[in-house]
Amino acid sequence: MGSGTLINADRLWTRLMSLAEIGATPAGGVNRQALSDGEIAAWHRVIGWARDAGLTPSTDAAGNLFLTLAGRDRATPPLLLGSHLDSQPTGGKFDGAAGVMAALEAVVSLAEQDGKAARDVIVVAWMNEEGSRFAPGMMGSEAFSGERDIDAIRAARDADGVSVGEALDRLHRAFPDLPHRPLGGAAGAYLELHIEQGPRLEAAACTIGVVTGIQGKKTFHVMVEGAEGHAGTLPQQERRDALAAFARMASALHAEIGAVDADIKFTIGRATVVPNAPSVVPSRVSFSIDLRHPDNAVLDAAGARIAVLCREHAPPCTVTVTPLVDAPSNAFDPRLRASIAAAAREQGYPAMAILSAAGHDARHLAKICPAAMIFIPCRDGASHVEHEWAEPDHVAAGASVLAQVLREFSVAAVIET
Question: Which residues are within 8 A (CB) of 330 and not within 5 positions of it... i.e. 6 or more apart?
Fold first, then answer.
């Protein structure tokens, strides 16, 4: 069949590269964090493309962007497809953006070639998937699926003290004519294309990854409290050195939890020292923990040890461990997965089943409707970096497979699992 019969590959690539200009970094990456000026500019550009194609834009209280192609039967739950437009501070051109652009291309091509679908088809750009500016991530999809309260989301603050609520209000003021829809709602199914963010597809020379599910994830914020002191006068035995306590905790956590088995992923990715002065004993250290495993039982057992180990190694300091994210492993819809595999086969693209090691908005949509993901390769498996890269042919192939699945399920009244 080939991608040329279902989508316009040149238009898709041109738009994806145009979007990458917004927030472009000198090293060739993208810094377009959630609810920033860059994301507002990206909204303007994407909304313009959608309106040109006859799609209707709208938003909700969580700052999700919806681009709707109206169907003949507007009472049937819509088919959603998309990803996110925000990036890491030193992110790449493809993480999230490729999924939104592929979804837009698939829907625009459907409108151009077939007119209306049987049901509404909606392209979605979810708010704050990355969690780089506001933690935790995936706020938009969690709000949509009812997993997080909008007031709790609005209360979160970035490193500069700006709340999500303040940033959301600013976003909405930038689009005064954009209709607001109720938060949440029924969905017939959800599809998301994404770069793999790992090396397996490239190593296997596979163009399409049929994602079986997403491994579980827990995150924590840990605060260690000690006391400041003069580095030259305070005796060692009298010190309540928060950084020394952190070092003991980090060593114990890596030794036990990081060695659970070959599938465990344990990361301390951020640590902040106060006052962070060369000649002052540190009084406070805050740090993050990211824990992942495909087996929920192993994940839960490892997660339960984090607070225990921190408390054991904190004295003479004190420690507070705050859970942030608790996302169990999930499996994607079997029928949608079979349709993705069949579309890849019919279009001549090599495909393989693959578990997602990274989290995605599809995890939360899978709790309220049938959901599935399509992976495409990224060079060397590199992502969340400025040199992140996906080949144009692979982007087109993924979008073409997405378009075929979209056409199959946009006419179905019910998606049976």
Answer: 213, 214, 363, 366, 367
